[in-house]
Amino acid sequence: MNIDQILKTFNSHTNKTALIKGSQTLTYGELLKKIKYWQNYIKENYIKSAEVVALVGDFSAETIALFFALLNHKCILVPLSNKTVEEKVKEYLKIAEVESVFIIDKTDSVSFSRLQYSADHSIYNMLKQKQHPGLVAFTSGSSGVPKAAVHDFYQLLAPFGKQRSALRMINFLLFDHLGGINTMLHILCFGGVLIVVEDRTPDNVCELIEKHRVEVLPTSPTFLNYLLLSKAYERFDLSSLKAITYGAEPMPEKTLKKLCHLFPTTKIKQTYGLIETGSFKIKSKRADSLLIKIGDVAWRIVDDVLQIKSDTSMIGYLNAPNPFTDDGYLITGDMVEIHGEYLKIIGRKSEQINIGGEKVFPQEVEDVILEIKNVAEVTVYKEKHPLTGNILCAKVRLIDEKEERKKFTWRLKQHCSQVLEKYKVPVRVKISNQKQCSVRFKKIRYEIEKG
Predict the structure, then answer these.
(1) Which of 64, 233, 395, 419 has the most CB atoms less than 10 A away?
(2) Range of the domain at 297
């Protein structure tokens, strides 16, 4: 699969709708015209193949057209979100050695400028020699400097060579997220309709599903929890939904079971993928189970950590050590439990908390706290302590904020003491009315820990 093949697919659907954003509707024929315009612009402005080009925006007609035009020109593309703060964008541009940048604002106006960086990294040279387009994706960097993962874009396209159904989907994940790019390709490579969501609140997303008869909602567990808390599903007709897919972070069991109960005819599907590997097939034991089987890729478990060998894996990091073993397996950092022929991902090894020599996974404690009445969301984290090294803390947002705090804290500790080992019971409980997620609808664990 290459860009020319994708453009041929577009050409076979010229009169079909490709994209809906607000009141704007764009057909595949109109998208092709925009791609052609930007292909001419690239040539007229002497943008070279293998040039490292940043594309700052969100999913829109111009952003998507530029995306395909630049990759067809065999550039190395760095997609960045216009929701990212300016200082962070500057950091990304520097790390990726970006040579030129397109910025697309909320009105779809485009500006182009040259930067002072010179891209001479050995990974970029590998792509240049192969004459393949590249794509750079960043890790969150929440626990340090973000790592820049470089992919051969042709390898990322490999899974799209097999024909699939054309679907109407919301592209929930942001433009700089590899999952967001993957969703866009899944929609457009098969002649589907991409519905752009600008306001990622439960009511707005549900309104779009009802209005445009959306068939698939790919999102995060945090958003799904907010959807359940808001009860927006009661205010809109979501009967068109064939599937809800979730990934990017751990799913609380309580949220999953409630979701399956409320959407009995909708397929609830867990996805798994990393910035370093792209996504690949997994199969859940049941819709309401977090146990999975991994397919399509080679995998193994070493010291309770999942290792994966995939054709869609990155070439390497620009600014971090090689995470691959000598025989080509990526050390994912995800800790797993084996349940017969199934696996359960229990958390990131880096998120383990050491309490007096004992290891605690925040997700396990959070799942127990979510069982308590009146809990909207919770984040478990650590604080430094002179005797034990760390103490376990929980930041809780209540559904009904009128509940007396001392009474709730007592209820929480009582419940946890009955279910968990003593060292897993939070010592300190903070109650806050602030939401505990980022603009990406992912839990902001590190930010809460840093205070």
Answers:
(1) 64
(2) 158-349
